[in-house]
Protein 1
Amino acid sequence: MSPRIVWWPDGAQATVEAGEQVHVHAAGPDVIDAIRLAVAHPDIVLSLVLAEPDALDDTETALLADVAVPTLVLASAPRTDTDLSAAQHIAGEVENGVFVIIDGSPQPVHLRSAESFGEWTASFMAIAEGLAARDGRLLTPPTPLLEGAHP
């Protein structure tokens, strides 16, 4: 069985505490809770996908250095003057952080540009699973389409 995708707060905590490897998605104000979950359970959380994150305070920002899982931060830019600093800051402070801007998309990106959001997240999660398989952290074998998998 492939790792599941769970949204914070829709069962992410319980799924992780049950020991099931997952990709955790969160948006807006829920991003900090997803980050805390990934920091506490780096062998269970395979990746974080964070959409349109809210700005973090100094205490929350300090947690970013402890995030050990690949993290994709997506933000939409409906206008050229859209403030993307919160999303960019989070991605920049996470060691394996990737920042993607969906130009011209209305906010929130995961709802208003679902197709683009889905393509970016699917590719990112495949890479995260490939990295986990290579490092011996993936509890189930990756599908043959994932990095490092052999048919």
Note: The chain has six helices and five strands.
Protein 2
Amino acid sequence: MFYRPQDGHGLPHNPFNAIVTPRPIGWISTRGADGSDNLAPYSFFNAVAYEPPQVMFASTSAKPDRDGTKDSVSNIRETGVFCVNIVEFAMKDVMNQTSGPWDREIDEFELAGIEKAACDTIACSRVAAAPANLECKLTQIVQLPGEANFTVFGEVTGIHLRDDCLIDGEFDVLRFNPLTRMGYRDYSVVREKFSLKRPGD
């Protein structure tokens, strides 16, 4: 099968998200200029640089009260900061609860019963029990082709690692099993890992 996206795929559901998988989930916490907290998951998320450490996430839909985007991007425009909370398998249900199209006045931490903790380098809340949190200062927001496609880039200014995930000096993902996004309504979980040595190492 071959298709041009501009012509449509002719399938019951768009296969694009099922092709680019698995994708890590960035559970993005933000705070508006009015002090309100927001928490929402994004599967167009990844780390993009080591020195200095930088991450990105993309928002691809809009709410009518948020000037062509969603709460997360709107809050980041106002305050210039955000926190990436890493999602473990055990948090799948509360993460999913925060993905709903909630009104801007809703605090998803409270909605899903998630404990907050204060960030250290930015004025923002984080998921207290997450395996890791990346505190970020906005570097740029890039508008991509499409009506509501925005990519947010941030420099990581503080990192929290849960103590039980540090094994022999390494951050061990098998201690918490990262949740990953597949296509359609599907998810997966990391339960195995192996190492490869690069040529020349």
Note: The chain has a mean pLDDT of 95.
Protein 3
Amino acid sequence: MRPLLLFLPLLSLGGCALMLPSHDPNQAWISLHKQEGQDIQASRVDDQALSDPRYFQVTPGRHELEVRLEFDVGGHDIGQGSTNYRRTCLLKLAYADFAAGERYLLQAGGIGFRPWARLYDERNQEVAKARESRCGDV
């Protein structure tokens, strides 16, 4: 029983690592929407690498965001009898009007071999589309 009591505090520390930091009201917050069969990570802001791939937090104004997207390409998109293929791409999204205190949502996915990403504001209106930067070994 005693070893279990010593182990429980260590388990709770692991849960703290999963929590996101609090939103700075002087900056814009961009959440990443993960869909089934994909993995999306925040990679860079204005060509500066990020330390936490789970979100973006930027000052008001213009910024270019880069995301790393892994998604499944269905076997039916490749050819008869083919199995699913995992594709990795970098996408860049530029938006000029990030506002302090606003929350944005970045959704991404793939249609066949083509990746896509869109940025939505708090009113769920699309404000920007990403362009494919490169795919393959990224």
Note: The first strand starts at residue 28 and ends at 33.
